[in-house]
Write a sequence for this structure.
């Protein structure tokens, strides 16, 4: 797999070399703000007025972080705030020292259910959309842009899909195409919201191959997932979220019985005899892979 050369952006802002790649400082989002700003309101276990409350953390270049928590915990809301498509009611997000909406280096891949797959566009067109911030909204792509699109598709093993309609692809192929769009964008921060939902094992592996290559290039990746086993096995750090950050750090330190009970509440049951924790299927129905319920987590 080749390495896509990174170019100086034509748009956006210069990065502050001394600043963390991502800083989230005291971010609070009221549930009422989600409707006011056109974001889909997700019902979940939190019944108070806040979708996110005083969320603070930092991410450095090259980190791969899993964001886990029950439905309605605020994972998608957090990603929208970081991407700059949703403004918090309090707090601040900076990417390399600047507000996120000034950057073209943030790539956000939403949940597949939020994408209109019937829109008549080819795979190559979707990936070329990642170049808009580099070439300008009303300029035509040049040869270098087409070369970068071709390289990006090759990196995710999707060159043969370039002329296909995006809606005709499998779920795994669609996710790889959206990652190719992020590559074409020359993103330095990649946000993936439930990218593995409904995918088979080979599709998982194909996506992680790309994520590992990105990590080697210094691209930071945040992945929202319900799969606690995946979070523990494949990520450097894990954020356990339920409106607020329950814990954030190494998987073994975060995914403890006490922390999971705080996050999942009545959906988590501990069997004291063998120290096994059971996550009830009513918590994460939409994300259970291959219909596997209930989900188990070993202490």
């Amino acid at each position: 797999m080749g390495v896509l050369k990174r170019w100086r952006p034509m748009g956006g802002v210069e990065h502050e070399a001394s600043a963390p790649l991502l800083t989230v400082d005291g971010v609070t989002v009221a549930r009422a703000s989600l409707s006011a700003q056109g974001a889909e309101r997700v019902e979940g276990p939190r019944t108070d007025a806040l979708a996110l409350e005083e969320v603070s953390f930092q991410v450095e270049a090259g980190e791969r972080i899993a964001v886990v928590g029950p439905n309605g915990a605020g994972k998608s809301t957090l990603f929208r705030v970081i991407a700059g498509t949703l403004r918090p009611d309090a707090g601040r997000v900076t990417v390399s020292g600047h507000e996120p909406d000034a950057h073209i280096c943030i790539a956000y891949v939403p949940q597949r259910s939020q994408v209109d797959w019937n829109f008549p566009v080819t795979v190559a067109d979707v990936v070329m959309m990642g170049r808009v911030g580099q070439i300008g909204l009303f300029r035509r792509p040049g040869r270098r842009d087409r070369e970068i699109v071709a390289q990006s598709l090759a990196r995710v093993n999707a060159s043969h899909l370039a002329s296909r309609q995006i809606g005709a692809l499998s779920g795994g192929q669609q996710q790889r195409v959206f990652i190719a769009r992020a590559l074409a964008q020359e993103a330095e921060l990649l946000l993936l919201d439930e990218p593995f939902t409904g995918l088979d094992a080979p599709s998982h592996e194909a996506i992680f191959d790309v994520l590992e290559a990105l990590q080697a290039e210094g691209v930071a990746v945040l992945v929202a997932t319900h799969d606690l086993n995946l979070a523990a096995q494949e990520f450097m750090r894990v954020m356990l979220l339920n409106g607020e950050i329950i814990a954030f750090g190494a998987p073994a330190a975060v995914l403890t019985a006490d922390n999971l009970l705080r996050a999942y509440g009545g959906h988590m049951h501990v069997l004291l005899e063998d120290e096994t924790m059971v996550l009830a299927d009513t918590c994460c129905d939409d994300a259970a892979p291959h219909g596997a319920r209930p989900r188990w987590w070993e202490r």
Summary: The mean pLDDT is 81. The first helix runs from residue 31 to 36. The radius of gyration is 19 Å.
